[in-house]
Design brief:
It is a single chain. The chain has 299 residues and is an alpha/beta fold. 39% of the residues lie in helices and 13% in strands. Helix 2 (54-66) runs parallel beside helix 4 (102-115).
Length: 299
């Protein structure tokens, strides 16, 4: 059974009749943060693996509603875990979208509106159609009017860099540009209201990147890691769960109920660990080269 659009608990409000304690948002229990990308019938090949069909997305949202979940935004979760007066609902969940694909407006928005679900959209500002558009987008992207319509329907708009690079591979100057340009454009498009949440492109970060994200004005940031989020991860390394074309409804149910097994994400975690070593080596080599070049220029 689906609840009427107006009956969904608010993010700051009623946890299914079971009030949450204040201070830490009522719980330190794991919160599933779902990571989506493209939503569409036939997305471009480059975006296909991390896409979901409109039918699968609708089925997943119906399950969240039937199981009593209350979606909230990344900013609301961050505020609750920082000890504000925000109260978490009994079964919180976050629905997040990365990059800014047009199908989020075409296919996901009507479903979210049906249930009164809030969400978080992390935009790559240089990929969106409009005055700041550049190369690199993998498929048809949102324009800024569509982004504002999503915001008006309850989506938090966060940052996802300007051109979607691997941030931990950038030197300090380029890293600052990616973060500040993204922050600046989102604020400009929303009348000076600055974004407070960020998602790392590819999920990659480092201590240096996390510090730069904080210094750019963001209050919390999301990684991947294919696990539920808990406060001890820290506000700039919150874990997410990847929802993709191959995610069946049984696996999805295990993800949101925090009963997913190691096997559910074994392949993704192995790839993440292996590539993390490669990226750390590349980053060390690149930073050492920049340091040598800088030293040479001072001679």
């Amino acid at each position: 059974m689906s609840s009427p659009s107006g009956s969904r608990d608010t993010a700051a409000g009623r946890g299914g009749g079971q009030p949450a304690a204040r201070g830490t948002g009522g719980t330190t229990a794991p919160v599933p943060i779902l990571m989506y990308h493209a939503v569409g019938h036939r997305p471009a090949q480059a975006a296909y693996g991390l896409s979901v069909s409109p039918e699968a997305f609708a089925e997943q949202m119906e399950l969240l509603d039937a199981h009593g979940f209350t979606p909230l935004t990344t900013g609301e979760l961050g505020a609750a875990w920082r000890g504000s007066r925000t109260v978490l609902p009994r079964k919180p969940v976050l629905i997040t979208f990365d990059d800014g694909y047009e199908g989020v407006h075409r296919y996901a928005l009507p479903v979210l509106a049906k249930y009164g679900f809030r969400s978080s959209l992390f935009v790559t500002t240089g990929w969106l159609r409009g005055p700041h558009e550049g190369p690199g987008a993998l498929d048809t992207m949102l324009d800024w009017d569509q982004v504002r319509q999503l915001a008006g329907a309850g989506a938090e708009i966060g940052g996802h860099s300007h051109t979607h690079p691997q941030l931990d591979q950038l030197d300090d100057g380029r890293l600052r540009f990616e973060l500040l340009r993204c922050h600046e454009i989102v604020a400009e498009q929303f009348g000076g209201t600055s974004p407070v949440s960020f998602a790392y492109p590819y999920g990659y970060s480092s201590r240096r990147v996390r510090r730069a994200v904080r210094d750019a004005g963001f209050a919390q940031a999301l990684a991947v890691n294919n696990a539920s989020a808990v406060p001890r991860q820290g506000p700039f390394a919150l874990h997410r769960l990847t929802v993709q074309r191959s995610t069946g409804i049984e696996r999805f149910a295990r993800m949101v109920e925090n009963t997913a097994t190691y096997r559910d994400f074994a392949r993704e975690r192995a790839l993440t660990r292996g590539y993390a070593v490669v990226r750390r080596c590349r980053s060390a080599v690149r930073l050492a080269r920049h340091a040598r070049e800088a030293a040479a220029s001072r001679v």
